[in-house]
Write a structure and sequence with these properties.
Layout: H1 2-18, E1 30-32, E2 41-43, E3 64-69, E4 78-83, E5 89-93, E6 99-103, E7 109-111, E8 115-117, E9 129-131, E10 135-137, E11 140-144, E12 152-157, E13 163-170, E14 181-187, E15 193-200, E16 207-209, E17 218-220, H2 250-260, H3 269-275, H4 279-317
Parallel strand pairs: 1-2, 8-9, 16-17
Antiparallel strand pairs: 3-4, 4-5, 5-6, 6-7, 10-11, 11-12, 12-13, 13-14, 14-15, 15-16
Keywords: Signal
Protein name: BZIP transcription factor
Amino acid sequence: MKKIALILLACCLTSVGSFAQNKFPGSGYAGIGTETPEQLLHIKSTSTESNYGLKIEGFQGFSAGMRLQNNTAVTGKTYSIYSSSDGDFILGDENLQKAKMAIWNTGEFHFDGDVAIGSLSENEGARQLSVNGVTRAGGYECFNGSLDWGQRHFTLQSFSGKARFSIGLLGDESSNSAGANFSIWRYDDDGGFLAQAFCINRKSGNVGIGTAAPSEMLAVNGNIRAQKVIVTTNGWADYVFESSYKLPALDSIAAFIKTNKHLPEMPAAAAVEKDGQDLGEIQKLLLKKIEELTLYTIQLQQENKDLKSRVEKLETSR
């Protein structure tokens, strides 16, 4: 009988030793798998067969989760983390009525409200998504510049990760002439910067193609091919045919050409090379010169007729 008692006592001591790593005091920290808990509940895995330290299982297909509550009277400070009956991971309010964040069982992320990634504060302003840093996904990256160099853009990349085009803002936001102009940049085959292909000046509204400083509503640094170009202008040169128009004397025109090396009213070569030409105005001036030339030709024809008539009369009178 004593032998049986000793055997039972040894078994009890062995059983107590096996569970000695759990600690459940009347107050203070409790530990599972550890005798030195560091929090109110400290769970430490003692098995290499499982990676899970805690399992919360719902009843007959109902949601399983836990509730996090700040011990204050402020509303909206209580959240619930739970797994729905469909296998979705959800962060919701205290009554499980509204999902703040959810990861569907399909792997999709859903958020109710503004999302901030990085060292952004609540006072950054309402944004559906705020990212403080470079974002890279699916062949593009987003860069948010500094105050001194206000470059904010998306870069579109090839499948190999090389830059192809960038779309965004470019300008110095710290100066009085803050730029922040809309721009499109292009890159070579190796992803190196080539040129600013397109820009819109924020203040003037001027558009530039191949130039970063458009001085007109549309400035193009290169050739243009079009099937039709329409230029509107005020007035036209048909007033030359009015009876009140005084046709310049050819002698005065000859003297002007000798001195200036171009026709009256027409721009000089140096001016065109420097400032270009106004197509509408130059077409109007060219038409004026053509109409004046037509009048000179008509005058010469009339003079030739008069001379021919006089010659015929002289020959008849002989």
